[in-house]
TrEMBL record, chains A, B, C, D, E, F:
Keywords: Zinc
A biological-process GO annotation: glycoside metabolic process
Example of a GO MF term: hydrolase activity, acting on carbon-nitrogen (but not peptide) bonds, in linear amides
Keyword DNA-binding: no
Organism placement in taxonomy: Bacteria, Bacillati, Actinomycetota, Actinomycetes, Pseudonocardiales
Domain of life where this protein originates: Bacteria
The protein, known as: GlcNAc-PI de-N-acetylase
Pfam families: PIG-L (PF02585)
Species annotation: Amycolatopsis albispora
Length: 218, 218, 218, 218, 218, 218
């Protein structure tokens, strides 16, 4: 019998790692196969060696044993038209995920994040086999992001940090720093109401767009 | 080892049955113990024999083997003050649920539904052991209700109908009619994207207020 | 004296029929002339004979004696830029409608529906002669659609079904099925508070974007 | 054959006059009988002779030949409980309106306005004979008020001013001044897109909470 | 010439300290006189020595040299009626603040926080001399709180911690812990886009309800 | 020491003048240097001599001694992609504003206004030196625009009118009329709670997207 699949659909290499690699690790531990779809190669980043990002993404995916597909849309210029819809739909048909994770398409997010978050959410809603559609924390500022679902990633935080550390070309970006990542994860632990008792806990946070109870397995 | 518990907190007898008894049955099938808290006895209903409702509620709870507690707040005059908070908190402390279901407190709902839905949601958020807080479909008109979580209750629809049929004193109310209940459940099946292929399917729908992933058991 | 005009502005052939042909029939019965504008020919549908849709649209429009214009924008790739604005504006100038019906541009709708709904609404607001701007029910899932205006189409449901039946190329799509259409119309009847008394009633539902009271004729 | 009825449900004497007396006059001109329900007598106003307000309300109602009922709830302390619900419901049963006008219950409104607007809207939605439920402009600051429906009251502005002038005890309040009332009415004319051509036009503005198309008479 | 005044209106002793004492210290440094109004004495807290809170509040206010008034409404049972409105209005008339800080009245907040935040905001909006109305961070979970205004309190964080340390009776509550307070202040620094460069920065966050530019002094 | 800078980022010549030239004048009076960025030349306006608009913009900017840059994007066809982001970012890097003013990107605004308002807001949020990001009143209809910040421009209204009068090619547009501009400014004065006492006051209104307290200078 084949494994259930979790699919992360994001705009650039590093987006999935920041938003959901802790949850991804937790899903793998529960028997899920993992797949990451990046719509662009992230080449238009501000950093000098941005051409390295697809390669770094491959290293990061390997940390969790996840499949990685990097599409060739132009970084920074995605539009919510038929071509992007079709491409995302093809992947969803191919891997038949039961869980889809994507961007929270808030009004102040990066233009590509808005496009990918909106399209991936719409497409995933239409697929009857997708039982859970989650939108992850924005990498910069949280703005209107008001999550309902929280994942305890305390047991997986090291893997998340290891995956992020693969992005050497982005080492100078504030949101990639180890301390920033840990601070955020502690904030969401607190928002989730996780009791600390001295030992810090780490969480990821998501807006729930669609959930089917039997898939969730309550 | 003790069973996990699902707790339904609603304003009047019949509210829980309408909003979540299909999901309750599904939870029981997965090993949950069930508890229903009704804040009032429903005595101020428009129907002649409204005094029968607590007794009818007992019959309905028995259909699913659920515990039932009917509090003595006055039907129609609940306020979101300390007394109601404390009472709901006591029940949550007593039964220690991992799942809490309550009213969707929309702006056009019955005044008691707004109070109970708001207070139960707030209290359940604060309890670290509650992993899932859901707000159910309004019994009258859906208004701004925009659910994210859908439960397949096809296998349990008969139990839900049986429980509702216990409310003989309310048999003339439109939203208690068998056909109304089935129509609604089919509508949510369609909204959930459930494929029909000729065989009708039945769903319940909920707004997700809080979800902790390990409790959901993905 | 010329008739008042109702104009439906939608993205693809079949959109207008699904969202508002019952209301359209009701308007015709009250003396309105009807006009349908479809921005694309629907050629990129998933069905085999999608090239037939403009022809089918013509048959459907004929059921109500409505004028039909099918523009040649590419199905699936509409953008909210000057060209689409100008084209919709031209039609509004030409037919001078007092009622405009269009898509509800919700965040999870088909990309073309979002574009057409947004642009048609904006343009119609600016025209002083348009007294009513309505956004109709999404064909797939209702999501955040929260209608305020409900039309009783019980007397016109057969015409709506007849128009939809013209789309033979789409006969396999779930939302085109006779039973789906009737279920939806019954749901909105219930949301509108229509009393049944045994006889089923059928309604269409709309978000009100603009209404001028004298035009509404209260 | 009896006339259709329009009912205004507001918290204090002067609220209905400010929010909807132009529209009320327009409805009378179209054959409606008018009824005003004020839940309190406005006795806790800041002005010296606030005890005069019920009497002034009677004079104002007489300007339009409207029925007036002043209930005896305490000004400033209304709560959305059973007693207020029942009282409003009684009036709606008694006069059987097809149009109900009430407060916009925005988050920064006077506490009584929030209670009356919420309860009257909820009760009016449940009544199948009510075809139009409108929430009127707040008397102080507009805040989040985003109206969809605009009434041309140019022909009735004098009657509205005459009714407001009956409130001599409130002559010093800024929002009762003739110029303030005209300024507001011109603002809504502009928001409604009314073309001026030199001659000023006057409008009232409403949020549409419920509309049934046959009642609107398109 | 008299000093400008900043007034904090909150429900319980400790609420003002948590939400805005850093900003309060910054305002004092810019020449503001400070006043704190607590509507209740916090006696119904879960802690054993809750009767000590008014005394602790006095010590905390003294840290910033702020005036303190503790009203005698019952903790947990505030209602948005005339009495609470009048009491808050009296204080605003008495101290004539140009800045008012209060609770963010979000839907999942403590019932008293909702009441005080709503009433204080409404009253402060009506006072022409109030140039800035801010709603502070909820003490428990942030929920839908989406602030626009951020204050750099790095230079004042020690005073904030010192004031909170006065509440010995609440020393066991998680949100009163020094580390929790610092974590939150670092989170808001990051949300404000404050550059770190190794040195941690501390911020408080507020929803802006009203701002008059000359008062802000741009 | 160099002056602080206020930057207005809008889509077409005349947009900045309508939305914020009163506030701009107030900022200049407080020592700010002013810069206006117009993304297009406004050539696709409905008026005959629309080619004059960049020249008219230069005259208008001169009224306040503001720098003006007119970019060459095509009027009516802006898209929220990388090119527009980069261009706006370049200007923000070049002039290093502490205040940024732009469009309110409401759902019914001109397509270009939505694009520029969204992109300028996002970019300005990311710049640590920007302490205030404001979105100005739409030129046509206010729709969902719910401002929090109000500027008293009574002392500057003549300069605003003088700048608008430079747009001779648009003299026939209703929203450019002197009386319309004054009416709007009086409306916002009233919404701001400005007391009149016979002398009319004039205000501009803004949604606050970001504010840092030390920059605001309270």
């Amino acid at each position: 019998m084949s494994k259930p699949v979790a699919l992360a659909v994001f705009a650039h290499p590093d987006d999935a790692e920041l938003a959901c690699f802790g949850t991804f690790a937790a899903l793998r531990a529960r028997g899920y196969a993992l797949s990451v779809l990046s719509l662009t190669d992230g080449a238009n980043s501000d950093v000098e060696q941005s051409y390295l990002r697809p390669k770094e993404a491959r290293l990061a995916a390997a940390v969790l044993g996840a499949e990685l597909v990097v599409e060739d849309f132009e970084d920074g210029s995605l539009t919510a038209g038929r071509v992007v819809f079709d491409r995302i739909e093809q992947h969803i048909r191919r891997v038949r995920p039961s869980v889809v994770l994507t961007h929270y398409p808030g009004p102040r997010e990066h233009q590509d994040h808005q496009v990918v978050g909106t399209v991936a959410t719409t497409v995933a809603h239409r697929a009857a086999h997708v039982g859970l559609v989650l939108q992850g924390e924005p990498p910069g500022q949280a703005d209107s992001f008001t999550p309902q679902l929280f994942t305890d990633i305390t047991a997986h935080i090291d893997l998340k940090l290891k995956a992020l550390a693969c992005y050497k070309s982005e080492a100078d970006k504030g949101f990639m720093h180890r301390e920033t990542v840990l601070d955020r994860a502690r904030w969401w632990a607190r928002q989730a109401g996780a009791v600390e008792n001295g030992v810090p806990r780490y969480y990821e946070a998501f807006v729930v767009s669609k959930a089917l109870l039997p898939v969730l397995g309550v």
